[in-house]
Amino acid sequence: MSIVWEQLEQYQPTVLKMIAKSLQKGRVAHAYLFEGQRGTGKKDVSLLFAKSLFCINRNGYKPCNSCINCRRIDSGNHPDVHVIEPDGQSIKKAQIETLQSEFSKTGVESNKKLYIIEHADRMTVNAANSLLKFLEEPNSETVAILLTEQYHRMLNTIVSRCQVLSFKPLPPNAIADYLKEQHIPSHFALLAAHVTNNREHALELSRDDWFAQARKIVLQLYEALHKNYLQALFIVQEQWIQHFAEKQQIDLGLDLLLYLYKDLIYIQLGETEKVVYKDQISYLNQLALTLSQKRIAENMTAILQAKARLNTNMNPQLLMEQLVLKLQEGLTFV
């Protein structure tokens, strides 16, 4: 699917605004460093930028997405746009040297050339030094775009020669909309979008049977917490411990539980548009009428404390049993 400026502008408005200004004023830098978490659109924006530079029928700063250059960049076949990825675990010196050799030649169709280096922080020392020499002697028609999730691992001398654009974590609603476009059911899309701000991870998670079962167990535990202490303990012992086997999984499970209590607060505040478990709204509405905000806040604090204690050597089953006790003791109904 073709990369659309308006869609990326929703995700990264500041970055797109800066790029648009550079294109409008004809002041494109010779090197950019796109830094930010995985799944924030760095690669998409770099290809969109490339299309804007090479588009035959550009409308202001926006590419037409239909000319031969735009189509070839979308398909990865433009002769003057080169993408370098790690060879195994790292980017080798030979890859940078090949790039330098390629860029010493005249452009196939114009003098413009652009290269994108993915995971630029994975360059070996020799590769980084070779790139540094390349950046120190920029060709006026050459543009470099370096992508990294590990900004702190980049050589300061490379960073100082680039215009750094920081990509912000995506808002949950934007991720949820993306997941729905991939035919993920709404109730899974919204929940996955809240537990990670990474589009790719959210997509993997929402397609995983483990995640669907995790959601089911959390809902069962939540219902039991407000009905039967022994049933809640039984769910922890017979289902939770087996399913949430690793610390990272337990942490995710606690997040899923925390969002249910957050939903109660949103309902009590009349902000139902912020509710994550929208398919449970009828049940949550009933519960919101019976619990005080103070009690909900105390339960949320108890869950956050349990998350903090995960990093200790505490037994996971004991941790969860104590949490169940804490969530049930002294329930104050209004």
Automatic annotation (TrEMBL):
Keywords noted in UniProt: DNA replication, DNA-directed DNA polymerase, Nucleotidyltransferase, Transferase
One MF term in the entry's GO annotations: DNA binding
GO BP terms: DNA-templated DNA replication
UniProt-listed Enzyme Commission number(s): 2.7.7.7
Catalytic reaction equation(s): DNA(n) + a 2'-deoxyribonucleoside 5'-triphosphate = DNA(n+1) + diphosphate
Domain DNA polymerase III delta subunit C-terminal: 244-328
Record GO cellular component, one term: DNA polymerase III complex
Name of protein: DNA polymerase III subunit delta'
Organism of provenance: Paranoxybacillus vitaminiphilus
